Amino acid sequence: MYEFLQYLVCDAMTPEPIAMSPKAKLREAEALFEVHDFNGVPVVDDQRHLLGILTKFDLLKAFIFDFHTLVPHYDEIMEQTIETVMTSHPVSVEPQLPLSRLLQKLVEMRAKSLPVVKEGRLVGMIAREDVLKALRRAAIQHETPAREEQ
């Protein structure tokens, strides 16, 4: 497990992840979630500066009933742009953050994934699954020399 302490976010992240424009429609985001089984997608400008993140939870918020609309009109809501419901200024991490610190942050925040940003630009996404894979990889590397000695 000592090996895990050496890992950085950049060692486990998904580089250059799929991202969406804030002007994209909620319908497009829903299709992306369906095809890729994403929980969230980063929202970026043309230079890949991180503007926000859209999660499945954010998508659900678009359907909250209010005093004016008893039953939301699905097609109308799905034509809204992502920027109307995205989480602006999301928590992000840098690629050089130790993975052990990220693990603590994910647990404390109960987050499923976080964008990885370098100099304001999106360079990756890091998810719970990525951290679990890194832990497994570190454990396997630790066990391998012991097995070879026997």
What is the domain total for the residues? 1
CATH first level: Alpha Beta
Segments where pLDDT lies below 50 for 5+ residues?
A: 146-150
Lateral arrangement of strands in the main beta sheet: 1-6-5
Shape: elongated
Provide the succession of SSEs: HEHEEHHEHEEH
Give the integer mean of the pLDDT values: 91
Annotated CATH homologous superfamily: CBS-domain
Structural class, by secondary structure, is: alpha+beta
**Major beta sheet summary:** 3 strands, antiparallel
Cα separation of the termini: 20 Å
Q: Using only CA atoms, what is the Rg?
A: 19 Å
Q: What helical percentage do the residues reach?
A: 25-40%
Number of strands: 6
CATH topology tier name: CBS-domain
